[in-house]
Amino acid sequence: MDESDQIKVTRRDVLVIGTASVVAPLLPMRSADAKESTPMNDTQQPSVEGSTTYPITFRVNGISRNIDIDPRTSLLDALREHLKLTGTKKGCDHGQCGACTVLVNSVRINSCLSLAVMHRGDDVRTIEGLGTPETLHPMQAAFIKHDSYQCGYCTPGQICSAVAVLNEIKAGVPSHVTADLAVPPEATNLEIRERMSGNICRCGAYSNIAEAIRDVTGSNG
Ligand code: FES
Ligand code: FES
């Protein structure tokens, strides 16, 4: 056997050695982690994968719902995956697009940034709970009237956000536009666009969205 044969390493050998070198250091750490984990209490249930779930009760669209959930589950995933309320959309899953906007106790939040277990006892409203096909919420009807969507993916979040925006203006909650002016906020085009700036529309239906919102307020500003 010459020298070149002795150092010959196949591609398969490289993969096996590489995988072992990556996995080996992790094994003791996982074992140590397992030893340090705290025992479950009475309200926790082991899931099929061995993780722990917690029971939560909250109201969703006016109905009391009980689910056992992994504490790492976002409110967005709890709504979509556990309660099958898929009207709320997942866009970025990082708090950047607003597609997942829902109302919690009448305040809008990005449900992808909030853990479901934080909402025990809360009142959550999604697009499914704003109106029905027979009796649309005025904001839903205005979006249809003003053709405020194209693909529609951002629309549930836009509508939930718009409903909250009107509540904010009505309650006199200042925005960046009005904070320095010390005047009550009004539903002007500028004010609405500022307050809706966290809801991204890749189709660019912004003008029609603002028109729909101003229509609901009766504002021409
Ligand atoms: S999916 Fe939540 S902000 Fe984009
Ligand atoms: S309507 Fe398509 S992203 Fe807004």
Q: What is the 3D form?
A: globular
Radius of gyration: 25 Å
Span of the ends, CA to CA: 88 Å
Query: How large is the count of helical segments?
Result: 9
CATH class of the largest domain: Mainly Alpha
**Unique bound compounds:** FE2/S2 (inorganic) cluster
Report helical residue fraction: 25-40%
Order of helices and strands: HHHEEEHEEEHHHHH
Query: Please, how many domains?
Result: 2
CATH superfamily of the largest domain: [2Fe-2S]-binding domain
CATH topology name of the largest domain, in short, is DNA polymerase, domain 1
Q: Return the structural class.
A: alpha+beta
Report the average pLDDT across residues. Answer: 83
Please give the number of β-strands.
6
Poorly predicted ranges? 1-7, 13-38
Q: How many strands, what sense, and barrel or not for the largest sheet?
A: 6 strands, mixed
Strand content: 5-15%
CATH architectural label of the largest domain: Orthogonal Bundle
General description of the model:
With 221 residues, this protein is α+β, with helices and mostly antiparallel strands. It has two domains: 51-129, Beta-grasp domain (Ubiquitin-like (UB roll), Roll); 133-221, [2Fe-2S]-binding domain (DNA polymerase, domain 1), CATH 1.10.150.120. Helices cover 38% and strands 13% of the residues. It contains nine helices and six strands; from the N terminus they run αααβββαβββααααα. Strands 1, 2, 3, 4, 5 and 6 form a six-stranded mixed sheet that branches. Helix 5 crosses helix 9. The protein starts with a helix and ends with a helix. The structure holds FE2/S2 (inorganic) cluster (2 copies).
